């Protein structure tokens, strides 16, 4: 009697689950069939291997060389996905991907399965390996009735490799400055964990660039020793509490002491980078460089008037290589003369553009989206749209210390065309 009672209870459970699966609205694969878990609720018990199966994402390949993947959580398989080729009775062929969204498939005695139009079988042969089969038959009803099917596809899978942690990086920014000017750059330490000490030296060509000052940022206090005679600046930091994350180690103010066009490497030497346990922190170093801009300066005009806003067209031919990041416009005295838009390009380069931000900060200058290089003895085109009253060189060709600037046309805001109008600008 007791046995009959247990069998009857099990049958009731199975019937209830089947009824629920019929009434439940089920997701579909990318092609259409409903899915449900066909595992036996009165099936076997979990084995020791099942309990040790690695949780997380699993990936692998099929006998067709396609991808298979699924997730393991607890004693269930989720989101089983497989790509495969198929053929139809009509002779048509194709490739598709099936994904079983829900329900999860229970792992019983190291195995999981699903049996409908789609047949999935999998077995975990170890905590880190699984193998199985897949087959699928379905009917297409539009534009005509056809039956399509796969072969009996086999697959193998293993846990997806964990992504490698991002390395700790010590880096310094690239820098550009005009002769005699200064620029501030940051030394960054990124993706560091439990950092407690840092001893970093910066080496540079003292005839090109010098360090004017070192200031603290995210980390303090920073002890710095600047030796521009040797071209080395030493910086040291210590903390009684570990720091984790991304940090600006220090800000350095650099001064261009060399000539236009010269450059120097900015070489970082990480003497020490340690954690709270006095262990060295593995890291990579990204050095930078410092370049002194060559300024292409049309200079102020001796006779800046007449002047009117409009669009200038022409060419620039430098006699030496010049790095450009901004354009300065000389205004007529007492006016707000400026450039609102500028573009420089040539026949083999699409160029860079700059846009005006209005009368704020250094409104005489506009910055290009990215610094660029004008090479010696190469001709470049310009389009410069001005506002208010910029100074004008009333000539078709103007020699400068760094090359020539020519006018090919000027159209004022009223649509009137002129020749021989060159805007008084400086590229730096």
Tell me what you see in this structure.
The protein has 428 residues and is mainly beta. The protein folds into three domains: 21-159, no CATH class; 168-292, Immunoglobulin-like, CATH 2.60.40; 296-427, Jelly Rolls. Helices cover 6% and strands 56% of the residues. It is built from two helices and 32 strands. The chain has helices at residues 2-23, 48-52; strands at residues 56-62, 67-73, 76-88, 93-100, 105-106, 111-115, 118-126, 129-140, 146-149, 153-159, 168-172, 175-177, 182-203, 209-215, 222-227, 232-256, 263-275, 283-286, 288-292, 296-297, 310-318, 322-329, 338-346, 349-355, 365-374, 380-387, 392-393, 397-400, 403-412, 417-418, 422-423, 425-427. Strands 11, 12, 13, 14, 15, 16, 17, 18 and 19 form a nine-stranded mixed sheet that branches. Strands 21, 23, 24, 26, 28, 29 and 30 form a seven-stranded antiparallel sheet that branches. It has a six-stranded antiparallel barrel with strand order 1-2-3-9-8-10. A hairpin with a 2-residue loop joins strand 2 and strand 3. Mean pLDDT is 87; it is low at 1-47.
Distance between the termini: 98 Å
Main β-sheet, in a few words? Answer: 9 strands, mixed
DSSP helix count?
2
Structural class based on helices, strands and sheet pairing: mainly beta
| Count of individual domains | 3
What ranges have pLDDT less than 50 throughout 5 or more consecutive residues?
A: 1-47
Please bin the fraction of helical residues.
under 10%
Percentage of residues in strands: over 45%
Mean pLDDT: 87
CA-atom Rg in angstroms: 36 Å
Give the total of beta strands: 32
Q: Which descriptor suits the 3D outline?
A: flat
